[in-house]
Amino acid sequence: MGSIEKALQLKEQLDSLRPISKAQELKIMQKFRLDWNYHSNNLEGNSLTYGETKALILFGLTAQGKPLKDHIEIEGHNEAIEWILDIIKGEYPMTESFIRQIHSLLLKESYTVNAITAEGLPTTKRVEIGKYKSQPNHVLTSTGEIFRFATPEETPAMMGELIDWYRDKSSQNNVNPILLAAEFHYRFIRIHPFDDGNGRTARILMNFILMQFQFPPVIIKTEEKNKYFFALRQADSGLIEAFVNYIADNLVNSLEIMIRGAKGESIEEPDDLDKELAILEARLNRGNQEVEKTVELIYELYDKSVVPLILNFVEGCKKFDTFYIETKRFLRATDYASDNITTAIPIVKNKINFDITTFGFSASYKVFRHSEYGNFDFFTNIDVMLNSNTYIVRNERTNQTLEKNYQDQLTEDEINTIVNEELKRHKDFIEQKMKNA
What we know:
Helices cover 54% and strands 14% of the residues. It has 437 residues and is an alpha+beta fold. It folds into two domains: 3-273, Fic-like fold (Orthogonal Bundle), CATH 1.10.3290.10; 291-436, no CATH class. The active site is at residue 192.
């Protein structure tokens, strides 16, 4: 089976697992987003490691000794991805204006870079965000030859032709999204419409096309840099199938990760432990100092730790609904409680002030359906208690507590452990009732 056929088959398997729970989807997409940010920028020479990239995006930690420009690139790239993930939910057309918007988000601000003239002489040029190139951006190859892209004069017309080509191909009934996305990437690179940032823009546009067709994004890993550029050079020589197959190979990897995630299985890859250790080192280097509670820190804690914990717990608790006649779930915050979780999440955020002391989630299960094992109820809850310098995640029934400083958010593993322990307690409770009966 070829890579394209395998990817299409895996897509069918993924579709059969949909809808994916909100908590799992958030977890999967966070992994894709972090990998995408790191690898796409590293391919272009960004010096931040994976750990430094993740620490910057998730915790706002800057890497000592690394250029400010590299931090700005990561932040801009992440903003562009987040925008893509947001607009992909609706029907957003591919236009030249859209492409320029992505470029503006990516680069954030104009700057000067080194370049070569059409005659191969060194020069500098000003990179203007969201604007097509004003000077040639040919590159010097490893053999000493100059590889020529479209001239500044040719670029506007060729970009218009690219959009027309895309609209025609994407509207066909038998369109193959993998072929469409890969060829669009290649055609865009052959034009090289901007003075800088063309590779990152091309990969974002390729993934935008794939995600419009419900595929996960393709992550071109920095370890595959030589293979990636070799596939592009093969396309330059007329073998575009080689590049399409290379993209399909990497799409297969993304599909397999997303399928594992949809099944609730681990989405970690062999090198993920090394990445996590690098992140841990960055956080340890920051120090273990206590930070006094502020309203701003409570907002950040709520968005980055409490809400993900709630969503994960809600999805887990739903698994037990079928065993009981009546179930209710509540989101609590000091003097507020509601059984409409979706509505309550933004309401609680609006109620945040310095005096708030607790966030909590609870679920009550009334009347076990299988009465032959007894007539019993079950109650579960998790609280996040806010102290002056630390917050505590607590389950009073199991006496489990986790205390952290305000600058340290809950990790995915910590959230999963907290939730899974309480779900396991519920399962064990039912099994004990059955055993007693």
